[in-house]
Amino acid sequence: MQSPTFHLFKLHAQELDDGYLDRTPMLQYILLSCLFPLWGAAASLNDILITQFKTIFTLSNVASAFVQTAFYLGYFLIAIPASLIIKKTSYKVAIMIGLSLYTIGCSIFFPASRMATYGFFLIALFALACGLSFLETSANTYSSLMGPKKYSTLRLNISETFYPLGAIAGILLGKYLIFGAGQSLERQMKGLHGQARIAFGERALQHTLLPYKYIIFVLLVALVLFALTQFPSGKPKVDPTKQQPQARIGETLVYLAHNRRFLWGIFTEFMYVGMQTAVWSFTIRLAMELNSSINERSASTFMVYSYAAFFIGKVIANFMMKSMHPSRVLQWFSAFGLAALVYILLVRNMSAVYAAIIVSGLFGPCWATIYSQTLDTVTDKRHTETAGAIIVMSIVGGAFIPVAQGFVADISNMSLSFLVDVVCFAVVCVYSTAKMRAFKAEGAEKNQ
After folding, report:
1. 108 is a domain residue
2. What is the pLDDT confidence band of residue 59, given thresholds at 50, 70 and 90?
């Protein structure tokens, strides 16, 4: 449903009966894809905040991982309300609400830095994530709909390729605006006690504001551009002679609960996102544990490499999907990812950090492929918006898997904690193998 507001940039594509378009409108698709780096920057800054807060607030690995818990719980709780708003209004309205909430969440960092309490920062992250939940619930499904159906998975993978660019930007902002030069923060604070330690910590917390100032500016520009651009509804057309009543939330949940393929996709996405978040949360800590002579700023460089590898992995996966089935690509990437994670477990030197970077590259096709394939299992299109929201809710894996890895790190060491990620990538490998078998079986049936 399009609002009757003025649009400076018009839509030049025809909406089809199933909600897809006859061709991809490039301006709208590019604007939509530019949302992906916005939540990439927010997520990567969490990796910086975990390292910063662990020292300033004297936290264990488990406690510092609650940064991700607060962040991904926001995703989990808001995804269904976001889908209901999409049903009542449009994807565009949900995106603009998401951009507004994201801006508010970034703004809460300013009073949080003055209060200088860990809990207040977690509240700010939760509020910020509520906005991101709106964005992801709408943008992931919307991207897959922005053109012909047969290219829906590839289209979402291309949009997802923008994500690591934002993640790299977030890490660079954190590296140069939050982390200082010289000795590590832990060493600088080691000899401080009482009021001197508190004062030093408060000054360090002020640095956390700087990246969010730039993000707020970008968000305001994005809000204006979306307001001025006409977007398709992305919703299937209803035949008046065969009109079905709109599905209620209870009916949709019952439908999805009995869809085994959908549930399998949800579980796989839960494990994947948890693994991705955990690997990125602890790569800096892994580097600093294996080489105690480097500081946070130097160690964060490995995260720049990780997100660059993630970008390269996505580009390679997109290229491979032009001639290979997406499930086969996912199967190969997950198998090599498992091997790289096992290397981290067994080798206790800095080469393990480079193996973690390789793992990031092998994340390339995971989220978008699992998302699109899981959404495709919903054959009754009345449930599409809510199904997309529930897939986004699986992001809550990022709230639990890093905590589990932090617990293993606290009772053993950081290298062994990557065993948690081995289990997660094994689930992705099994999922992709099952999908590939199902695809071959369908092909065999058609040829009979």
Report:
1. yes
2. confident
